[in-house]
């Protein structure tokens, strides 16, 4: 079973300059917890304005995962009260933090939120997990015993060749995926997201408040009764409830892909494949499916850049993040940030994922497909690979509309003729580190 350990806790100097005082009272360094919950509590007192909430953010994505109210009685902070005019400027907070779907080692940022929604960094807590997740129905039956299909995840940036890779792999008799362009039906990803949301403890904020969860039919939150207000129920929630939610959605995913397999006459399918648009969600999938296969598809980042520009120009629209930039070079910097994110995820799981280059899929397709199928654990017989290639090359009008170069071969190294010498120099500088990291000149 998974176990969690607090590796270190570091206080941020910015918090000391903007707050009268604060403390992380729990957890402490080297404290251990049973998966999936960690209890985080302490107190905080604001200088000029009241602190109303504390936010717990996953550092690697700067993504808030939990928020809790600062509304408990101050105890340890009484010695600071004479220094402030209003004794409502702070309070004690305590919350349960879920580690479901997080990496083996991660850092939580603990931030104070004042009445004007200003974020004040207080501390960071580094957590490491060890062991395997064993989600069980009972002492004899594990969730993994009930799954027919195993997932194949494809991580890539837009215009990296995912459409071509998906067409190829879906053509394999053992692999099922929704076989319609743009191959982006991410049903399992939706249900995995539902698992993450529904198994999160409540911070008693917004829709997770026991009096408010029913007020919005368009959104939902973690269970409002899975909280410090009902501490006597926490053991049931973190054991029985979490297990049942994970089991339910895993079975839903299995039934969905059974239906897809039946609909498209693929009775021998044992894998399902989806594009993964949020690579860090893969940690959750690896926990839930130990036999997961994950492919990182990359392409010369300069060609990715040019392909996006050409596609936007062809469609007369802005997409893939360009709509948030005010120039081509500004977009290149935004793209570099996305490359950095995917590179970080690749490095963290490099011992169990497969790196595939778009250029190899075009120039050495038979060998690259064999290498990919061998990694997946699917039949790589030459006759099957030949059939996959033939089927993937069948004319698809939607695919033709997406094309921005005359042929796949001409799309390789397109940056050399698409970009002016000045733009080439700038783009080479922006992407330099990531080109080298992935073996491009």
Question: What would you say this structure looks like, in words?
Answer:
The chain has 441 residues and is an alpha/beta fold. The chain folds into 2 domains: 3-130, Immunoglobulins (Immunoglobulin-like), CATH 2.60.40; 143-437, P-loop containing nucleotide triphosphate hydrolases (Rossmann fold, 3-Layer(aba) Sandwich). The chain contains 13 helices and 14 strands. The protein has a 6-stranded antiparallel sheet with strand order 3-1-9-8-5-6. A 5-stranded parallel sheet has the order 11-12-10-13-14, with helices on both faces. Helix 3 packs antiparallel against helix 4 (234-263), helix 7 packs parallel to helix 13 (421-437) and helix 9 (365-376) packs across helix 10. The longest helix has 30 residues, at 234-263.
Q: Would you count the extended β strands for me?
A: 14
**CATH fold-level name of the largest domain:** Rossmann fold
Give the class-level CATH name of the largest domain: Alpha Beta
What is the share of helical residues? 25-40%
Cα end-to-end separation: 45 Å
Q: Which consecutive residue ranges, at least 5 long each, have pLDDT under 50?
A: 80-87
Task: Let me know the average pLDDT.
Answer: 88
Q: How many structural domains are formed by the residues?
A: 2
Please give the radius of gyration in angstroms. 25 Å
Q: Main beta sheet: strand number and arrangement?
A: 6 strands, antiparallel
Order of strands, main sheet, comes to 3-1-9-8-5-6
CATH architecture of the largest domain, by name, is 3-Layer(aba) Sandwich
Q: Secondary-structure element sequence? A: EHEEEEEEEEEHEHHEHEHHEHHHHHH
